[in-house]
Design goal:
mainly alpha
């Protein structure tokens, strides 16, 4: 759905009224204001299903959610490995550091700002509760790296996910080894 400038202005003014009157248990004026001012209308669809516009979720939102989910599952899988399995991961992944390799690095604040906006909206919406890493700044272009990792990860998640275990250890290793910028493939 697209909004005209007039519709945006009217809605944003209504958001100001909501905030001034301190209206609770209704629409979130901060979320709506941010979604409209950044043209991220999917957030309104996600937050208020009764207002759903029947438009598909944008590809950059899918990439963000898949990437963030991937990092959560990589950590989940690693945390469930025994010491021998963890040692095998460390040996199989160049310069492996669990804190570095298993934490969501974020997106580049200079070149991938639309992804930081998506992360901020997801945070406002309370998605991925308990995680404050949604707006991490990687300080380097990361979309190509994540797309390459997801090519390895998503089939493993879809076909080989097991609750209490995660993905197979070899798929964890393969995904971490795919963390290479596309220019170096």
């Amino acid at each position: 759905m697209k909004y005209t400038q007039q519709e945006k202005l009217q809605t944003m003014m209504l958001c100001e009224i909501f905030r001034a009157l301190n209206i609770k248990n209704s629409f979130n004026p901060d979320l709506i204001d941010e979604a409209l001012s950044t043209d991220q209308y999917w957030a309104i669809d996600w937050e208020y299903p009764s207002l759903h516009s029947d438009e598909d979720t944008p590809e950059n939102v899918k990439l963000f959610v898949d990437t963030f989910d991937m990092y959560r599952i990589l950590k989940y899988t690693y945390d469930r490995l025994d010491e021998q399995g963890k040692a095998e991961v460390a040996q199989s992944v160049s310069n492996f550091d669990a804190e570095y390799h298993l934490q969501f690095p974020g997106f580049d604040g200079n070149n991938e700002t639309e992804y930081l906006i998506i992360g901020g909206l997801l945070k406002t919406m309370g998605r991925f509760s308990g995680d404050d890493n949604l707006t991490n700044n990687s300080h380097m272009p990361s979309v190509g790296i994540y797309a390459h990792m997801l090519e390895v990860f998503l089939p493993a998640k879809t076909k080989q996910w097991s609750h209490g275990i995660g993905i197979p250890k070899q798929e964890l290793i393969n995904t971490l080894n795919a963390r290479v910028h596309p220019e170096y493939l």
